Structure formats: structure tokens, C-alpha cells
Amino acid sequence: MLRLTATGYAMMTSFITFLIVFGGFIQSITLFILLRTPDLKSKSLTPYLINVVVANSVMILGSFPSTLASSIANRWIFNDLVCRLVGFFGGIAAIAMIATMTCITIKIYSTLTIQFGNNKLSFAANKDRTHLKIIAGIWIYSVLSMLPPTAGWTRMIIESADTNCAPDWMAESTAELVYILILTCMAYIIPVSIAVVYIWRINNALSAHVKLMAQMLSAQRQIKDFRNITKMAALAIVAFTITWLPYCLYVLICAFGEGEKIFNAETSVIACLGAKSSILYNPCVYAFVNPRFRASFMTLLKIKRPPIPVNAVDVIVDTSTNRRRMCNKSTVLQTRPAVDNQATAIELLVPSFLNPKNNAVKLINTERSVCNKSVNDDAKSG
């Protein structure tokens, strides 16, 4: 068994502690936001996002504590049953996570194709409970994938410098090699490939629909929401692919008998810990891409945000340039010629992602002395 130095085990202990503390914290925060935010709780994608959190939590609770204890002791301190359970929980959590993200991309595409016909784009809550069947299928798929080494049909061994358990990647028979290749396809290659294909199809569908709906502001907002959620799924898939790629290569190289020649204790541990760190990125991706989630997260942590104006925003036609612009210069709308020498104002209600009940644009022709003064000042300065 390859072993680390005392310093190596100390560094591993610190990293696993960080994953448990910080990973557990962000999973809890994410779950709380998804369950308590009305606008997020009602969306049909939310059950899938919750399932990703559940999968990450299974990884944290089922795999990390034994790795932490063993890294502190500088050796595996548990029996064979615990080893099998640790490998089982770690495996099903990873498979369930990527399978769920793949289902999210399929769900986005199916929603697009169904709703493009009536020009109503939204992720309304599921009423037929199909998502429950899909999520149950994801976990059955994950359990079946990890059943052979757990049941003893193949071997579950200690790896990662004697601190973690996983299926024996050193295939000693044709049956073991076949299982490793099938598991690699089921847990990595197939779900990632399907997700990439559907993300490509989503982008094509959105691009085609943008051309048809270019003149409708409400449709543009909805399409932007779809692009945001697609970007979230794509970033999550990319993050999973990157964090698990070194470990996947490690598995395949070991399966064909070259692992001992290429990998030492340090590289095998880095590949394993890199894969385990995948639990951290999903909430970060949500916060980075999804404005609803980000706003709820900042509110929960009592971080001050710029106030959202409750009044309508005035948009004027600048007769000197024949362009419409915002009086406060905070927003730019589509260019069109001016009708006359008077400024025409448009009252733009709060966008749908901030206030879904006011998803409309109300046209009001009025004279605004402030806006006129702004236009005249700009004309004089020009």
C-alpha cells in the first residue's frame, strides 16, 4: 500500500476537514434557500437541484468521516464492512449527482420544445409528479452501478494512501475489467456526453427562437432566464467533468495494469481528493448564475444589496439622436426614431425575475420636464 509522509497526512486531514465543514455549510444553506424561497420552491427544476444537494450530502456523511479519521491515524482503522459501505456511498453519491445534472439539461430542453408552440416559457411546478419517478430512477441507477463490489461480486479495497475505499481498479480478471469499463461509462462518459448533446440542442433552440421573438420584451426576458438556467447546468457539468477527469484517467490506467508504474501515493490522493471536492461547486454555480438564488443567499446572510426601485423607470426619446434612453441612464432599450420634438416616456414595470406579477411593459405618452431638461442639456453639451 502506497503511503504518504506525516506532512502529507496532515495536509490531507486539513483538506478533508475543510470539505466537511465548508461543504456541509453550503449544502445546508442551499437546501434552506431552495425549500424556503417561494419563487424557487415552485419551479419544476427545484426537485432536481435538491437531489443534487442530497447526493452531495450523502458523499459528505457517507465517505468523508472515515477518510478524516484514517488520515489522522495515518492508516485505515475500520473493518471490511465499513470499507464496503464507504465505497458504496461515495460511488452512488457521485453517480446520482452527475445523473441528476444530466436530467436537468434534458428537462430544460423538453420544456423549451413543449412551450415554444404557445410562446409561454416557464418552469412551472410539476403536477404529475413525474420528477419523483425520475429521481427514484436516478438512485436505482446509482445503486445498481455500485452493487457488484458492495455485494462481493468484485472487490472493494482500501486506496488513497490507506485512507479511503473504492472498487479495486487493478483488474485481475476479464470480468473485473468489464465491470470497471461499464462503471466508467455509466458514471462518467454516458451522462457527460448526453448532457453536452442536450446543452448544444438547447442553445440551438434558443438561438432560433430569439429570431422569432426579437420584438417582444417579455419573450426576451424569458429567453434570458432560460439561458441563465442553461448556463448553470453547463457550468455544473463542466465542473464535474474537470474535477472527476483525473480520477477517471487514474481508474482506466489502473484497469489496464499501468497504475503502479505511473502513480505514486501523492498523485493517487490528489486525484481522489479532487473528485471529492466536486461537492463544493454546485452552490457556487447557482449563486454565480441564478439571480434569484443569489438574492436569497445574500438576504439569508444579511448582506446588503443595492435597493430595487419600487417606482417605474422613465425612458425617453432623445430627439437630438433619435434614440430612446433611460432618464437615470441605468438601462438601455431598443432604438427607434422619435415621433415628434417632445420626449415620449415609457414606464417599464419591474422585470419578471424581480416581480413575476408585473411581467408587462406599459406605454404612457407624457411630458417629463426633468427628462426634457436632460435631453436639452445633452444637446447643448453636444
Description of the molecule:
- The chain is globular and about 60 Å long.
- The strands form two sheets. The chain has a four-stranded antiparallel β-sheet with strand order 4-3-5-6, covered by helices on one side. Strands 1-2 form a two-stranded antiparallel sheet.
- It has twelve helices and six strands.
- It has one domain: Rhopdopsin 7-helix transmembrane proteins (Up-down Bundle), CATH 1.20.1070.10.
- α7 (217-255) runs antiparallel to α9.
- The model is unreliable at 307-375 (pLDDT under 50).
- The protein is of the alpha+beta class and 382 residues long.
Could you say which overall geometry the principal axes of the C-alpha atoms support? globular
- The SS-based structural class is alpha+beta
Report the count of strand segments.
6
The average pLDDT is 77
* End-to-end gap: 77 Å
H/E element order:
HHHHHEEHHHHHHEEEEH
Strands of the largest sheet, in order across it?
Answer: 4-3-5-6
CATH architecture: Up-down Bundle
Helix count? 12
CATH homology superfamily: Rhodopsin 7-helix transmembrane proteins
Using the CA coordinates, give the radius of gyration. 27 Å
Q: For this structure, what is the CATH class? A: Mainly Alpha
Write the layout of secondary structure elements.
Layout: H1 6-36, H2 38-41, H3 46-73, H4 80-115, H5 130-151, E1 156-159, E2 164-167, H6 174-212, H7 217-255, H8 259-262, H9 265-276, H10 281-289, H11 291-300, E3 313-318, E4 323-326, E5 346-348, E6 361-363, H12 369-381
Antiparallel strand pairs: 1-2, 3-4, 3-5, 5-6
Helix pairs in contact: 1-3, 1-9, 1-11, 3-4, 4-5, 4-6, 4-7, 5-6, 6-7, 7-9, 7-10, 10-11
